[in-house]
Design a protein that fits this description.
The protein is of the alpha/beta class. Helices cover 46% and strands 15% of the residues. It has 12 helices and 9 strands.
Amino acid sequence: MYETIRTETDARGMATLTLARSEKHNAMSAQMLDDLVAACTALGADDAVRVVVLAAEGKTFCAGGDLGWMRQQFEMDAATRRRESAKLSVMLQALDTLPKPLIGRVQGNSFGGGMGLMSVCDVVVAAETAKFGFTETRLGLIPANIGPFVLRRMGPAMARRVFMSARIFDTDEAISLGLVARAVPVEALDEAVEAEVAPYLACAPGAVAEAKALIRALGGGVSQDEMDFAAGALAERWESAEAQEGIAAFFDKRKPGWA
């Protein structure tokens, strides 16, 4: 049904939404973004689904945006580039507004756009060995499309610690930043996820959905204006000499000029 993800639902109503590009470290391509939006629509409308676990194949949870797809954006005009880059925030909005609890099962490293995925989960359980980072500035880019969702999760004070430096950090710091709820040995990850899932199965599903919507209404969800602003900021950054140098250096397997 999908090219880059898998979904399966057990008899209890726990759906598992799995990123399935392990050969690319689950980097998000345009197709994966489309697949995730479609899966959110289907899972959200399925009354048999009580809770969703966001998981990933392989050793890496998500390496961020697929740089091959991102490199193609250099060849686009500004308006097309803006529409293409905005696909990431559209996908994150779909996950953020999913009317089911969303539990992140982070078995490995998560960078860039993967941090956006974590930020829209209601709870994230991670393997103790996982590493994290907002790595965009190392490539001459900015964490724009994920920015509104990350800021809602962490708050600006916490974001200042890691949002701009591309510094890699561990699960202890991810917990202190509010990105991860619990860190466990990788062999205990499924048990820890189950501990988060089980309580929802004893709750009224309609009440859970309305309670989640209430959080967005009272706590402030991400607005379309914010998403548009972020997409525009990234589109402009793509036109910079730094972005072109950073992406070229990545593919040439060399350090960019500023490093």
